[in-house]
Amino acid sequence: IMNTNQTKLKEFIILALSDLPIIKVFLFSILLLIYILTLAGNISIILLSKLDMNLHTPMYFFLSNLSFLDICYTTTTMPKMLQILLMEKKSISFASCIAQMYFFMTFVGTECVLLAVMSYDRFQAVCNPLRYAVIMKQKVCIGLAIFAWFAGFLNSFVHTAFTFHLNFCHSNQINYFYCDLPPLLSLSCDNTVINEILLLSIGVFIGYTPFFFIIASYVCIILAIIRIKSTQGRQKVCYTCASHLTVVVLYYGSTISSYVRPISTYSMGKDKLISVLYSVVTPMLNPLIYTLKNKDVSKAV
Predict the structure, then answer these.
(1) CB atoms closer than 10 angstroms to residue 190
(2) What is the average pLDDT across 15-40?
(3) Nearest by Cα to 173 from 51, 67, 1, 15
(4) Whole-angstrom distance, CA of residue 78 vs CA of residue 40
(5) Any residues with CB less than 8 A from the CB of 227 and at least 6 apart, and which?
(6) What range(s) does the G-protein coupled receptors family 1 profile domain occupy (predicted)?
(7) SS3 of 12, please?
(8) DSSP class per residue in 57-80
(9) What is the spatial distance between Cα 143 and Cα 164, in angstroms, rounded to a whole number?
(10) List of residues 6+ apart from 160 with CB closer than 8 A
């Protein structure tokens, strides 16, 4: 279909991770195992948080939200990856590509803000232990979770609206695992300066701002830990915060490098590997990081 001498695409071709049959079978098996482990681990956390009264706390409320996000992450991208590896058909319709990018970017933005909300919860628990129950009431927790989801949906809506008004005429082959913003912008034959400005500016608010908020929270937490005289008390606080901090480093390290920089600096080969870290590996590791040697979860199990 021609429109002002430019080809309007009806579908995109997502390139497979490999064209060698043996490697494709191996990758399919590994990704399927990762997907199953991700679903099993995160569903288990949600169920335990709901069923065990001892886990009806703000920390596990936010952790349940994080687990739900991780399930959404993998379900948005992994089934299509598995289909491409298993079948010859590698195409994805234009509408499906829009939907995949919209929901994926929603979950990216939501998780950035949610991790900052979780750091605020840890800050209140460590620095204001006597007022913690009053400050982190159920209504406050629900309000913070809604804010995180709203920020994610708003972030995604803006990027999706501006991206799919572009013309894609250079190629319909996406050298990536799924429909994401950077590879799609690289395929456009229009000027993408506005899209890049939006990517960088919104990225500052939904990426760097929560990240610096987390750093500020942990500076206050470290100062509070230093004032704790009991060695056992220090160890307990450090262990509680260490899990969240590990997830923050893994997640922010990969997402910020993927989104908050100019499109001209992207290398699809290298960025594909980075995308695997936050879209495939991190959702699988999160349940392990949060529950490993966690006495509350062990009792709940």
Answers:
(1) 14
(2) 81
(3) 15
(4) 15
(5) none
(6) 41-290
(7) strand
(8) SHHHHHHHHHHHHHHHHHHHHHHH
(9) 32
(10) 98, 101, 102, 105
- What tokens were used for 3? 């429109």
Report residue 227 as tokens: 């004032």
Instruction: Give the residues across from 7 on adjacent strands.
Output: 2
Q: Where do runs of H (alpha helix) occur along 87-230?
A: 94-127, 132-135, 138-163, 181-187, 193-203, 209-227
Smallest CA-to-CA distance from 34 within 66, 88, 81 is with 81
Cα atoms in the Cβ-side hemisphere of radius 13 Å centred on 130: 0
Residue 176: both structure tokens together: 């990536």
pLDDT tens profile 288-300: 888 766 777 777 7
Instruction: Decide: helix, strand or coil at residue 174.
Output: strand
Phi, psi of 115 (to 5 degrees): -65, -35
Rounded to an integer, what is the distance from CA 127 to the centroid of its chain? 28
Q: Averaged over 119-146, what is the pLDDT?
A: 92
Residue-wise burial string across 95-134, b where 16 or more C-beta atoms lie within 10 A, e elsewhere: eebbebbbbbbbbbbbbbbbbbbbbbbbbbbbbeeeebee
CB-based contact 266:186 (threshold 8 Å):
yes
The yes-or-no verdict on residue 51 having pLDDT over 60 is: yes
Kindly state the tokens that stand for 250: 């893994």
Question: Could you tell me which CATH number the domain at 2-300 has?
Answer: 1.20.1070.10
Alpha carbon distance 261, 47 (integer Å): 38
* Measured distance CA(73)–CA(108) in Å, rounded: 8
88 φ/ψ angles, rounded to the nearest 5 degrees: -75, -30
pLDDT single digits (tens) 212-249: 999 999 899 888 888 877 777 677 777 777 888 888 88
Cα–Cα–Cα angle for 11, 16, 21, rounded to 5 degrees: 135
Higher pLDDT, 146 or 274: 146
Distance between CA 237 and CA 234 in Å, rounded?
Answer: 5
